[in-house]
Every structure is written in structure tokens, then in C-alpha cells.
Amino acid sequence: MSYKIGIIRGDGIGPEIISEAQKVLEAAAVRFGLEFEYTEILMGGASIDVTGLPLTDEAIEAAEGCDAVLMGSIGGNTSTSPWYKLPPDKRPEAGLLKLRKSLGLFANMRPAYLYDQLREACPLRDEIIGDGFDLVVMRELTGGLYFGERKTFEEEGLRKAVDTLSYREDEIRRIAIRGFDIAMKRRKKVTSVDKANVLDSSRLWRQVVNEVAQDYPEVELEHMLVDNCAMQLVRDPRQFDVILTENMFGDILSDEASMVTGSIGMLSSASLREGSFGLYEPSHGSAPDIAGKNIANPIATILSASMMLRYSLNLDQAADAIDAAVEKVLADGYRTLDIMSDGMTRLGTCEMGDRIAECIQLG
Ligand code: NAD
User: Fold this and answer.
1) Is 195 a catalytic residue?
2) CATH, domain range 1-109+264-363
3) Could you tell me if the CB of 264 is within 6 A of ligand 1?
4) Is the per-residue pLDDT at 216 higher than 90?
5) Residue 351 — pLDDT band, cuts 50, 70, 90?
6) Quick count: other Cβ atoms within 10 Å of Cβ 123?
7) In the chain, what are the domain boundaries?
8) Residue 227 annotated in active site
């Protein structure tokens, strides 16, 4: 069976890490008899250099024509790159915002998984980490406080600013369905996070999540207040499987969850909409400081490719094989510079991709 994958190489380390992810995808294709057809899509600085724009309409159309899109990262050094002399809507990051909006990507998924081999990078104590944690934050991406009406004005001689947090039930329902679907592919537990003791929008959130839960009798649902969730993430992250939450709470909690893993080069992410299409990318940026030196860690992008196989292309076996290969390479003591520790063997970007691809082929 053949699958159409859009490839955005992007800027900085983007092209290097995407090449390694493609190497790994090809190894999975050989092992599982799959065919991946790649469409190159320009975005960010790379697109500005060629077209003058961070994202063209043709690029959006090309992405729409794919089953899923895998992206490196975009952007340059914000102090020195000429891209940042352009007006804000012409800069590399504007391309990504436009792509997410044009494709209607309303759900952001960021896993936080602690590899046993990288326990040293985790800032939590050993007795808290236990045998490790594996959770996903599902964040609503296009509603809530960041998109509500806002204004700054003067009232009775004092400056006043107002932001509005609003959600419609259909916006809540579609992300909740996504969250429960993801839970069905994992350990079947959803923790819905809100502030229902104070906010009306949270009380509606809770009601709608309860309604959606009726269609998922196998999934255990719990509700948690956001302040408690922020504490629980550092007190006992092992209790979580899928954390489902609105835009601003998700913004904060997903950063907190990723920081407790301690390794930025290992963290994947996905932006999803209804149906199976998704945009997959590492959580980190384009790291212009290390671009072209063959030292970037490609694993976040390789794991993003694995998520793409699992959640957009329904190729769970191939995704499992990639995840297992990453574990094996770490267990064998191979590390890129960012996760290097005493007694381990250091590999470059390209060699790390080779090792993981080799592991997939050997099975
Ligand atoms: P960054 O994530 O690119 O880098 C932060 C630090 O982490 C740097 O020291 C970098 O070398 C290191 N790092 C990041 N990824 C790594 C990897 N895979 N392996 C090893 N080390 C890694 O963040 P920044 O420096 O704040 O931003 C650089 C550029 O990236 C900016 O233009 C920014 O706008 C852009 N950015 C893009 C995205 C995206 O494409 N989604 C996200 C965040 C930042």
C-alpha cells in the first residue's frame, strides 16, 4: 500500500533531522512492505529565499493533497538572520501559523515519555520516577483565551486590559473525541483538566467531555483542576495517560510535562484535525547554533515520524518497530551530544539515523 507524505525540511537543523527520519521511514517501508511517496513542500526561511513568502498557496494545496505532513523545524537566528528584518507576517514563523490555520489543525498532541536509559536527564527524584512515565498532553489549539476578543482601554483614568476565554460546545467536542481516540490506542485513561470550580467555560468543558465519554465505555475518565494537575505532574507523573485540556492550560502543562523528561532533542509532537490527517514535527526549534555540524539529535523527528505512522496512517506495527529501535539504540549506549553521558558512545546526527534504521531492518 502506498502513502503520500508531505515533507517540510525547513531551516537550521531541519533538513538534517528530516533526512534521518526519512531514512528510518524507508527502513520501516522495506520491513513491512510499504510504499511512501514524498512531496517536498517549502515553508519558513527556505520558502522566503525561493518565493519571497514563508508559505505559498501552492504549498498549502500540496499539503492538503497528502495523507500527512512531516516537518523539521523552521526559523533562523532571530538576531542575525535577514528573515527577521521582514515584517512579522512575512517571517518564517508566520508560515507555520498560516499552515496550521489553513489546514484547520485544532488539536496538539505532545507526548512526554521518560526513557529508562535517560533517567539522569530527568529533574525528578528516583522514587518519583519509579519505572518511568509515558503520557500525552492533548491541547486545544484554535480556541480559548488566545483567540477570544481582547482590548486595552482606559477606564476612570486607569489603563485596563481584557481578554476573553470562550468555547463553543462543538470546539470542545471535537478535541475531546480526538483525546478519547488517542486514549483508545494507549492505556485507555483520560484526565480532563479544567478550572470548573471557577470558570463557566470549564464547566461547559466538563459537561461536554462527560457526554463524549459515553461513547468510550472502555476509557476511564477523571476530571482534575488545572492547579492540581500542575502539582501532580511533578509529584507523580506516572498516574497520567492522556491529559486533555483547553488552549492556555495545555500551553503551560505541555511545557511542564516535556521539561520533566529533561531532553529537548527527544520530544515529538503532532497537530491534528478531524479525520486522519496530521502535521508532525519535533517540539524543538531549528537550532541554528548547531546547524550543518552533524551533531543535532534526530530522535524527536524520528519519533514524530513514528507518531505519523500510528495516528495518521494507521500503521501501528511499523510505528512500534521505530519506537523499539530507538529504545534499543539507547539501551546499547549510543547517544548524540545533547544526551551524552559517561561511558556512552557518541554518534553524529547521520550515524544515529543509520543505527536506528539498521535496528528496524534487523527486527
Ligand atoms: P531551539 O529549540 O531551536 O534551540 C534551543 C536549544 O536547544 C539550542 O541550544 C539548540 O542547539 C538545542 N537543540 C534544539 N534542538 C536540538 C536537537 N534536535 N539536538 C540537539 N540540540 C538541540 O530554540 P531557539 O534557539 O529558541 O529557536 C531557534 C529558532 O527556531 C528560532 O527561529 C525559533 O523561532 C525557531 N522555532 C521553531 C519552531 C518550529 O519550527 N515549530 C519551534 C520553536 C522555535
Assistant:
1) yes
2) 3.40.718.10
3) yes
4) yes
5) very high
6) 11
7) 1-109+264-363, 123-260
8) yes
